[in-house]
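User: Modeling request: complex.
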Amino acid sequence: MLAFLIRRILQTVPTVLAVVLVIFVLFSVVPGSIVSSMNDDGRGPTDPQVVERMKKQLGLDDPVYVRFGAYIAKLATGDLGTSFRTREPVTTMLAKRMWPTLQLIFAAMTFAIVIGVPLGFVAALKPGSIVDTISMVLAVSGLSMAKFWLGLLLMYLFALKLGWLPSFGYGDGGLKYLILPAVTLGVSPMALLARTTRAAVLEIMTADFVRTARSKGMSETRVVKWHVMRNALVIILTTIGLQFGALMGQAVVVEKLFSWPGIGSLLVDSVLQRDIPAVQGSIFVVVLFFLATNMLIDVLYGVIDPRIRYA
Amino acid sequence: MMFRMIAIVAGLGLALSATAEAQTPRKGGTIRMTAPYGSSFTSMDIHTTQRAQDEIVAKGLHRSLYIWDSAEGKPVPELAKEVIVSGGGLVHTFKLRDDAYFHHGRKMTADDVIWSFNRIMDGTKAYPGARFVRVIEGAAEVEKGQTKEISGLKKIDDFTLEMKLTEKVDPGFYFFTALTSIYPADEGAKEGFIQKPIGLGPFRFVEHVPGSRVVMERWDRFYKPGKPYADKLIVSIMGEAAARDVAFRNKEIDTSVLGPAQYVAYQADPNLKGTIAEVAEVFTRHMGMNPTFKPFADKRVRQAINHAIDTDLIISKLVKNKAYRATSWLPLTSTSPLYDKTMKPYAFDPAKAKQLLADAGYPTGFEFEWTTSQNESWGLPIVEAIIPMLDRVGIKVKVKQVETAVLADAIKKGDFQAYVYSMSTGPDPQAALKCFYSSTPQSACNYTTFKNSDFDKMIDEAGQTDDAAKRTQLLQKANALLYDEAPVWFFNYNKAVMAVQPWLKGIQLNATELTHQNVEDLWVDETSPAK
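Assistant: Request completed. Predicted assembly structure:
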């Protein structure tokens, strides 16, 4: 197990380096810079002397390879650089944003699992029934609906019309502020989980070992509990893992819409203002989270199904 | 039509202020403002940022030597009780307030002003406020690292400061924004200042949740007796207009900035119509034409473009009347003595446009590339509406769409044939017109590399004269010359529109930026849902 973990961790290094390189090069060639974005709201003229000093101070006049080399050297020591925009360490900025994002994606995934997995199971156990039809219509709708639009609909219904929940903001970080953004973010993985679970359960229900179990006289409840559920879990867990990892990236829209102070909104602001160190830092965290989640899922495979070895 | 609208604006302003005056301000409560310009706050160190979004917070936390008085339409002394001008208009002696306390309890003195201005001129830090402080004698030397202290600033005593300028300008226009806020000399140098800023403003810092909000509470030792009225000020970042709309209707926020579509919707809704506050802001939307692109070097072509576009139609149908027709460069502000009401905008006259093009040697027109952002009020939708209008006179347009930051970059580098942009053209008319002064670099604000010796002469004379009436006359003439030379298509002056909940009183119609409120004058009545 330990060897497996070490190997997986080492495998992430080239992935991370490749991502860092791509982002660095991308933001070095796209037009616009922090200097131009500083005055993009047209408030007063730009001072050419200040611009020149700022470029020098931020190292924007250096060749790309020099800047990349300096960045990698810092990264190796755990220093993600200093934000062009706020002039504070990127690690400090990320630390402030990490907890709200984690809160949001854990809540969204909890919602997705609690609703999506049982829905898929129920639909698969009664294929063609009204329950199956309704749950799959819901699933397809959830997958199709844009998060921005869904968020606005939820705001309109639960904040404006029913008055149950606040429509925006982080508040004290409490549950009532978390529900709407988490549901908005969680609907899509919930729908995917429902469909995946249904497909997996339907397939397993027709497998030889299930037929054998039934022929031995095992009750349907026990068949589902001991054979179907356990085997379906590997597929469900894979979906959960992929969705969980991807949620941090998907949170961008939801965080902006609900004024949620997470890494997603930091990323958007940083891209728009060409705050390259903050963009790199944010993407770095998103990638690390994705890789860590997937590694955790790999470990869990072995727990669920002992036949899987870490060879 | 336009002057009827001016009257409406003025009337609304009067109504708002009359209502505020008629009632006794209530102490207590929470004001919940929104920061509507999309992004997170750049920094809690306001010296580092000139974005409108950041100054909304700074209006609570900080104070500068001057402050914008919306009723007067000009900057007035804030941290000074009196300003004495001598030395042929170059020396300004500030009798500073002796009752202004920083949020950590220390009294402000002349040392703090000197320290703050020296900090802003630190050339290694590139603070954007340097462009203002540079007008003080010796400031440029500090910026270049030749000396540590601005020689033109002299402390007479703790509460008297002498400031020697390099140009005969009104320092009020230079030192009223938050970029030149006065920091406490001892605290401002500490590393933790950025996390917990200390200022002289009516509210003191409580909390910053990056990407979400800033919370401030009343500073009881604020120098204006009885102010601020509210106990707490919360500024929430809300860049999404639709989300802001829901929150406003749900009474979760007290102010919301409206775009054209919402402006129409709010006007049509009897429950929301009364919440609208609007003002002509000092921003001029325009299409700049690059004279290095041969057709645009000819004044007749530039005039033809002004005649070929049905500007009123665009303002009415696309901008939903959330703008005032521009008649030249200087903006429409009801209090500006410089705005020449007799000037008429270019008439929509395609036949005349064709004639001008023919006279200029382009009887069959030409093609140009138009660089634009996606902005709904002055970007791509406007360009798309203009394409067929220009096509009618033979001018073809090739659209180049870019992000706003990229557009700003392209304009400053001259990397365009034509661009469309919204630019601050106030409040200082002299500074706004100086953007067309021949020696003003393109990278500063002379984006169309305008050169005209008569214009330069007028600006020079306006800068030298002590006669205010003569200065006004000269600047009006310079503005009229710009109108005739038409280096840009004069589109519109922004009409800023804010929805204000009925319980929030004291809103000022700030023409420099409507969201920038002197928050000590705001108060909420007992119907506010926020306690």
